[in-house]
Structures are given as C-alpha cells and as structure tokens.
Design a protein that fits this description.
By secondary structure, the chain is α/β, with parallel strands linked by helices. It contains 14 helices and 13 strands. The longest helix has 23 residues, at about 5-25. The radius of gyration is 30 Å and the shape is flat.
Length: about 425
C-alpha cells in the first residue's frame, strides 16, 4: 500500500469520526454522562454506586452473623427456619415485591421466633396490612432535600450524627427522603413498636416491631446501605450501628424480590412475563458510553487490520517464569536449625511463617497477636479461637524457655499442621 493511500484512509477515518461525533453528540451539552452505571440495583453482587456489595462484606466481617444464604427463588421455596438459630430474613431495595402468600409465609416465619430486617422505600402492602390498622398511612409526607442527618435513640450511641448527601452521576442532587408516620403504628394485639433511629428532626426512619415470638426491623432509607454511602467512613459506621440492633443469627439475603415477577398477558405481548424485550443494538444505542466504546472499538479494529495486519517482527520467545524458591529456602533453613538444635530460632521462624500464611490467605496482619487479631482469624478461617490462642501461647512459652525439647517442638508443629488442615 502506497503512502498516499494510507494518508487517504486515515483522513477518511478522521472525517467519519468527526461526523459521528457531530451526529451523536448533538444535544448532549446539557447532560453529563459518566462511565459508572448509576442504576439502583441494590444487588449484593453489584460493585456499582447503588449496589450493596460493600454491605455484604460488612455482614461477613462484623462478627454478629455467620455465612449468610442468598435467596434467589420464591420465598416459600427457599426461606429456611432452623429452630436452633435465629434466622434473619434480610432485604435491601427500592421496593420489596413479595406477593400475598409470601407475606403470610414471612409473618409465620417471624411468629416462630425469627427476625426480619427490611430497608425499602416501598414495603409489601400485604405485609403492612397484617400488622397495621392503616397501611396506606405508613409514611409521613416525604422530605425533598439533597442532604439529611441521622442519629440513633439508644442512650449509648445517641450523641452520634451521620450526614448523608444524595449523589447521582457524581453530583449532589435533591431526592425524596421517606420517614415513618408514628400514628400509623398503633398496632394493638399486644404487639409493640419502638423507634430506633431518626433524623435530627426526630422523624422515624428505623423502627422495631415485636410481632408474635419474633422481631421485625423496618428501615425507610435503603440509600444509606448502598456502596456509594458505605465507602465513606461515616456511612460505614452508621451501617455498623444499624446491624448492632439486630440479634445475632443466620442471615438469609433476599435477592429474588428486588424485581417484580408478576406475569400477565395482553394483546401486544402474548408471551406475558411483564418485561419488554429489547435488542442488544437498541440497548447500546440508548447508552452513550457503550455507543462510543463500540465506535472506538470498530475504528481501532479497522486501523489495526490496515496497518498492523502483517507481522512487523519475529516472534519473541516466551520468557520462563522464575521459580519461587522461598518455601525451599525456609525448609532448608529449618532443617539446619533442627540439625544444630537451635530450637529457639526454629520457633521464631515457624511463628513468622505462620503469620505470613494468615496475612496471605486472610489479609490480616499484625506484629503482636492480640485477642482482636485472633478473633478475626477465627472468623475467617473457621477454626476455633481456643485452638488459635493455644498456638500463639505455645509460641510465647517456648520463646521464653532457655531449653526446648524435641517433644515440645513436635507438639507445636502438630498444632500448626492441624490448623492448616482445618482452615478454610
């Protein structure tokens, strides 16, 4: 290909690119697009601004709850009730789409002595209808603002104030903030309601209802548990305090009812299902970031095919990976210490190796193991605190001894090996 032809091709691509920029960029001066997806999914696997992935990680590390279950099908088929533990139905979302029969099943679940935590702007009507006189009056008039301050009513944490700004598309904007109407919770039937959290104007946003043998926790502001809120230190602390009100147990996170599963038929959609099917091309055209990404990808592929389609140089042989000889070095060093009967040095080497194993596998590190460190290791490894404490106590004891016997060293080695076999 001649130089003139290449210049002509590049000029043509630039002209096409400018035309596309003009055509698709018109009218976008007043809008701001970002690469992040700002859809309010509230999904525990979504790491976007309005997902709840950070909240899921908080549940896993707060120490009050074990490994939670994810409910991905109808509640009546998946919600478990183990009489030996406090099972917790857990939901965070813009709206909970429980149907009538699932609401009755959930209330029986609570009545049996279990717990419900639900944070939403729209609660299932059938659920409210069973516990309130007037479910239509559950909220006061919503507050339209860009920021709110929240607090708790428990005396030990009543002094804290937590500021939240509503952020959308990387800008602070105004939104509706919902608060419970205290007059709607005149429950009767022996059930009681307690306000746990409010804003600084004492409007309720977090309440606890004693229902039968169990508890129902309702929270009216799910935005406070999204990734964008919990990435702030203040938001993370607020979420921790919310969870501390809930009795320990096994969490069962409902992902299924984040969306509606109501099926219907009409003249335009004989298949029913309640969802409008869209083609992939239509979806790309309606999302400017995807559209521009696709255009640049196509242009890049064309340019690569024209100018880089033919190999420019010989194949470079793959470099061999360097062998990691760290473990071989440690084993050799340990053997030397063993032969020379330098047990004290061998003990310090084993302790360092053990701490490195914990840091590599569980991302927990410290110079001097304490009770908090041991508790975190026990939660992550699923090995009892007593066994881990025993290992570190033996390290301390043997390091202080002037003479260490082979038998004592063998016992320590067996304890460590037992940890490696049992840990997750």
């Amino acid at each position: 290909m001649s130089k003139t032809a290449k210049i002509g091709i590049i000029a043509g691509v630039i002209i096409v690119f400018v035309v596309l920029l003009y055509y698709f960029g018109r009218g976008s001066a007043e809008e701001t697009y970002v690469t992040d997806d700002w859809t309010e999914t509230y999904d525990p696997s979504d790491k976007g601004p309005y997902g709840t992935y950070v909240m899921k990680e908080l549940l896993d590390t707060v120490g009050l709850f074990g490994n939670f279950l994810e409910l991905n099908e109808d509640l009546k088929e998946t919600l478990e009730d183990n009489p030996e533990v406090n099972d917790i139905y857990f939901f965070i979302g813009a709206e909970n789409y429980l149907d009538d029969s699932s609401c009755m099943y959930l209330l029986d679940f609570v009545n049996a002595g279990n717990t419900v935590f639900m944070s939403s702007r729209y609660f299932p009507y059938d659920l409210l209808d069973e516990i309130l006189y007037d479910p239509d009056d559950v909220f006061e008039e919503a507050v339209w603002d860009s920021a709110q301050y929240f607090k708790f009513l428990h005396p030990q944490i009543a002094n804290g104030r937590y500021e939240y700004n509503y952020v959308y598309n990387n800008k602070v904007e105004e939104k509706f903030w919902y608060y419970f109407n205290p007059e709607a919770f005149d429950l009767g039937w022996g059930d009681t309601v307690v306000a746990l959290g409010t804003n600084t104007k004492d409007q309720w946003n977090y309440i606890r209802i004693e229902y039968g043998g169990g508890l129902i926790y309702l929270h009216s502001t799910p935005y406070l548990f999204t990734n964008i809120s919990l990435m702030r230190r203040e938001g993370f602390r607020y979420a921790e305090k919310v969870l501390e009100h809930i009795p320990p147990g096994r969490v069962q996170w409902d992902r299924y009812n984040l969306t509606s599963h109501y099926e219907y038929n009409d003249g335009d959609n004989e298949g029913g299902g309640g969802e409008e099917r869209r083609s992939m091309l239509e979806f790309i055209l309606k999302n400017p970031p995807l559209l521009w990404g696709s255009i640049l990808l196509i242009i890049g592929a064309i340019l690569y095919a024209l100018f880089k389609g033919k190999r420019m140089q010989k194949i470079v042989p793959a470099a061999e990976l360097k062998e990691n000889t760290s473990l071989r070095y440690i084993n050799t060093l340990a053997s030397l210490y063993m032969q020379e009967r330098k047990h004290n040095k061998l003990i310090r080497l084993k302790e360092k190796t053990f701490l490195n194993f914990i840091a590599d596998h569980y991302y927990i590190s410290c110079k001097e193991p304490d009770a908090k460190f041991i508790e975190k290791v026990a939660i992550k490894s699923q090995v009892s605190k007593e066994e881990i404490t025993d290992i570190f106590d033996r390290f301390r004891k043997l390091e202080r001894m002037g003479q260490v016997t082979d038998e004592q060293l063998i016992v320590l080695h067996k304890k460590i090996e037992n940890f490696y076999k049992k840990c997750r």
